[in-house]
Every structure is written in C-alpha cells, then in structure tokens.
Write a structure and sequence with these properties.
Strand order of the largest sheet: 1-2-4-5-6-7-8-9
Radius of gyration: 21 Å
Strand content: 15-25%
Low-confidence stretches: 275-280
Protein name: PAS domain S-box-containing protein/diguanylate cyclase (GGDEF) domain-containing protein
Largest sheet: 8 strands, mixed, barrel
Order of helices and strands: HEEEHHEHEHHEHEHHEHEH
Distance between the termini: 66 Å
Bound molecules: ligand C2E, magnesium ion
Oligomer: single chain
Organism: Phytopseudomonas argentinensis
Length: about 280
C-alpha cells in the first residue's frame, strides 16, 4: 500500500512538472510572438522631487497584453524571459521605447529602465545601451538604469567592470529595492551608483506600530545617500502622511500610487504638460 501511495505521489509530481514545462514553453513561444507583434507596452510611473513638488521623471514598466490571457504584469513573465534568454530582446525593446519617449520630454526629465541580472551575464549590455542612446539621440544623463542587488551577487567583479563602462557612457545607475538584500551597504561603497531607491516595505512601515523604527531607518538611508552624493527616492508612497513624513526628513524623491499610478505614455505626457503638474 505504501508503495502504491508513493507511486501516485510521484505521478502527481511528474504530471505537475510536465504541466509547468508545457506552460513555460507556451509562454516562451507567445513571448517570441509578442516581441514581434506589438503586444508589449510600457507604462510610465512619475517620480517627484519632494521639495519642489515637480515631476523629475518616470520609471518605465513593461506590460504584456496577451491575446488570450489578458493583461500580464512583469512578475508573471520576466523570470521566463530570463530563463529563455528572451530577456535581451525584451530589454532592447524596453530601452529603445523608453529612450524614444524621453527624447520627446523636457530636458530636465529622466527615464528609468529596470535591468535584469541576466543582462550582466549575457550579451554586450554596454553596446546595447550605447546603441539605444545613439538611435534615439537621448542625452545619456537622462537615462537611469535600475539595478537590484542580485547583479552584484552573481559575479561582483564582472558587474563592477560593466557598471564602470556604463558610467563612462554617462548614464545614471540606481540601486533598486534598497534594503531588501543582504549586503546593500557594502555594495553602495563599491559600486558607482548615482541613486538609491528605498524599497517600498520601509515606506509601508511608516504606517503602523513600527513607525519610529521605519523613520530611523529611512533617515539613515537618506543620510547615507547625502554623504555619498546619491539621490534618494522612496518607492511605494501610498498616502499623504507617508509623503509628509518623507518631506520632513528631507527625502529627495518619491514615487508611488499616492503620487501617480503607472500611466500610459499619453497620460504621462499630459501630466507633464498640464498646469497642475506642481501638485500631486
Ligand atoms: P520595481 O522596479 O521595484 O518596480 C516598482 C513596482 O512597484 C512596479 O510594479 C510598480 O507598479 C509598483 N508600485 C509602484 N508604486 C506602488 C505603490 O505605491 N504601492 C505598491 N504596492 N506598488 C507600487 P510592476 O510594474 O508590477 O513591476 C514589478 C517588477 O517587475 C519591477 O519592480 C521590476 O523589477 C520588474 N520590471 C518591470 N518592468 C521591467 C522591465 O522592463 N525589465 C525588467 N528586467 N524588469 C522589469
Ligand atoms: Mg525599478
Ligand atoms: Mg523597486
Ligand atoms: Mg522590484
């Protein structure tokens, strides 16, 4: 009897695994089509300079309008794109579109693009970024590349070399989701970051019992950013009280649903040309 149970458990896992493999294959094929067929699009989430209450730029976030599955968010397909290597083509598409969009905005607005750790391991990231800038004629200083800690974890020496080359192109580098990993502090010392994006879990803690601790942590990150001449952005600002806490402790920038959800390009461009741009 135990044997039978063991076998059926095994069969259960095997069929579940098959299903996952088939599912991944399907998404992979679909993603290849999506890259050709205009199913991907970008949304732009505004970033604000807190002291001036003006828009400083936007983060480009990829979405996939799948023909049968509906709207897919990056968390449901980036990992598969990474496993299959399609991330390079996807990211090229994102870079070109985001740089093209930003080249139409006022000169003081930046665009941020998220990079995958895989891009530091495969293909020539520096050449790809240079090409996107040349093709779109965007001033390099207006492109910010968002990098998470995983990049430094994978191969820290190679990552540093690539980041230094990216800096030579003139682009900005920011450390995304700061505070969620293990060695964020030592990375800030070693790698040429221009900006820190405080992970939204710390901002969420501004609401609730852990508030005093959250304020202390955020203040110390802001102090660190100031000492290292880095811009500090708070992610995931969802309320007026979070924004006023951040203003009080002199955080540079804020991004989040309270200030603006990710918008279509048209909506974002309306936002930056409207007279009400000064106030969220
Ligand atoms: P991220 O870079 O940390 O992006 C911020 C995420 O937080 C976005 O989710 C955004 O919509 C969401 N967000 C913004 N404000 C708020 C808020 O006030 N509250 C809450 N709860 N969430 C907020 P999204 O668009 O689903 O992106 C998820 C992740 O997918 C991104 O995290 C980024 O790591 C990745 N991603 C997005 N676009 C790309 C891309 O083009 N390339 C690569 N490699 N990764 C991307
Ligand atoms: Mg990001
Ligand atoms: Mg982030
Ligand atoms: Mg993230």
């Amino acid at each position: 009897e135990a044997k039978a149970a063991g076998r059926s458990t095994w069969q259960f896992y095997a069929s579940e695994m098959n299903e996952r493999i088939v599912n991944r294959r399907k998404i992979e094929t679909d993603l290849r089509n999506a890259l050709r067929g205009g199913e991907l699009f970008l949304q732009y989430q505004p970033r604000y300079t807190i002291s001036r209450q003006t828009v400083s730029g936007a983060e480009a976030l990829v979405r996939w309008q799948h023909p049968t599955r509906g709207l897919l968010m990056p968390d449901s397909f980036i990992a598969i794109a990474e496993e299959t290597g399609l991330i390079i083509a996807l990211s090229d598409w994102v870079l070109h579109n985001a740089c093209t969009a930003a080249s139409q905005w006022p000169d003081d607005l930046q665009v941020s693009v998220n990079l995958s750790p895989v891009e530091f391991q495969r293909g020539d990231l520096v050449a790809r970024v240079r090409h996107a800038l040349e093709a779109t004629q965007l001033a390099p200083g207006r492109l910010e590349l968002e990098i998470t800690e995983t990049v430094m974890l994978k191969d820290s020496v190679a990552a540093l070399q690539i980041m230094l080359q990216l800096k030579r192109l003139g682009v900005r580098l920011s450390m995304d989701d700061f505070g969620t990993g293990y060695s964020a502090l030592s990375y800030l010392r070693t790698y040429p970051f221009d900006a820190i994006k405080i992970d939204r879990s710390f901002i969420a803690d501004l609401q609730g019992d852990a508030k005093t601790t959250a304020v202390a942590i955020i203040e110390s990150i802001i102090g660190l950013g100031r000492a290292l001449s880095m811009t500090v952005t708070a992610e995931g600002v969802e309320s007026a009280s979070q924004l006023s806490d951040l203003a009080r402790i002199h955080c540079d920038e804020a991004q989040g649903y309270y200030l603006g959800r990710p918008h279509s390009l048209e909506q974002f461009e309306r936002l930056i040309t409207s007279a009400s741009l000064a106030r969220p």
